[in-house]
Fold:
Amino acid sequence: MNKYRDYDNYLKEYPTEDGYFGKYGGNYLEDPELIKAFQEYADGYNTIAQSAQFINELRRIRKDFQGRPTPVYHCQNLSNLLGRTQIYLKREDLNHTGAHKLNHCMGEGLLAKYMGKKKLIAETGAGQHGVALATAAAYFGMECDIYMGEVDIAKQAPNVTRMKVLGANVIPVSFGLKTLKEAVDAAFMAYSREYKDAIYCIGTAAGPHPFPLMVRDFQYCIGAEAREQFREMTGHMPDQVAACVGGGSNAIGMFTPWLADPVELVGVEPLGRGPKLGDHAASITYGAEGVMHGFNSTMLADENGDPAPVYSNASGLDYPSVGPEHALLHDMGRIRYTTCCDEDAIEALFLLSRHEGIIPAIESSHALAYAIREARTGKTGSILVNLSGRGDKDLDYVVERYGDGPEFLAMMEERRKNG
Ligand SMILES: *Cc1c(COP(=O)(O)O)cnc(C)c1O
Structure:
């Protein structure tokens, strides 16, 4: 018996036509204009994006503009330092703009072009999605409206500058707490008004149908490339594949191609400062079923059932819910989810920087920290980590908060020795 064979037909079965992954997913929006807009979007995705012309054009963009395929790399120094586990990276940090988000932004932009739209609309929190989408808009010659809370605009000046230089309009959102949640509301309102000429571009594998399906498909290239590359490099499959999970886009793109293979898949959620509600953003590990932002999934809620405050030192991971497909694959037991705290991620960031010459994003460092934890048990075998992005964007924050490496690494070493 091979339990993985059950997944041969998985991609045909999930999601259903109305966007359900088991009981998760769907579309719970109430605004009738938005429902119309999403229907048009789903129809466009189901027809246009499956055509040979669309697929070929996207393939060309991936190669010539994004620089794909990104390599798989064997971390020999780090593996030797830690023990016997062989650690490999899928280098999404080498994707154009320095992270995986451009994979779905280019797909969304191309779909907008085929649907005859002139503008891309989105919200952004830390600004990573805004920068990737502004890049896509420039490529396709489209207008780009990025809604951003005033508080985030003040905190994320370099990304605001990048978006503006790329030609996007950064529209300040000044109601409520003036952060990501209000920016989402403002972007949805704009989409409801403007959907005849514009499309809304989600930043992760969450949101109402068809977003979780569409983003998974546009991110599928990560895992598909890695599976070929790893086998070519080693002659076998990795024992484990790991990725960090915020909304879940880099992880679902990395994992989906391996579902029917005898490979353990591990999603790593941010434990932040610890397991108390408000100190982390581990929505699968500590969450419960609930509807938020128009879809059903597993979420972190406060006592009123509203999205709870969340925290992680990786701004790309602090989201109180997760893509519905992760909720399903967790229930099915196909993906194992674990957590990594702020400090373990920073240790991983410093170790990879000093021993391999690669500075990873704090988000990606969460997945790498899991591989380091496994290696320290003395296990043999191999782990392929999705290095979702590069860490240049994080360095000012890291150095101010944790220093530039040696003292922090010595402190962590000491802590481990004392158990
Ligand atoms: C945004 C981001 C993430 C988290 O988003 P997912 O949708 O969970 O992949 C992870 N890594 C990097 C580098 C990011 O920019």
Q: What stands out?
A: The chain has a mean pLDDT of 96. The longest helix spans residues 211-234. Residues 88 and 384 are 5 Å apart (CA to CA). The longest strand covers residues 264-272.
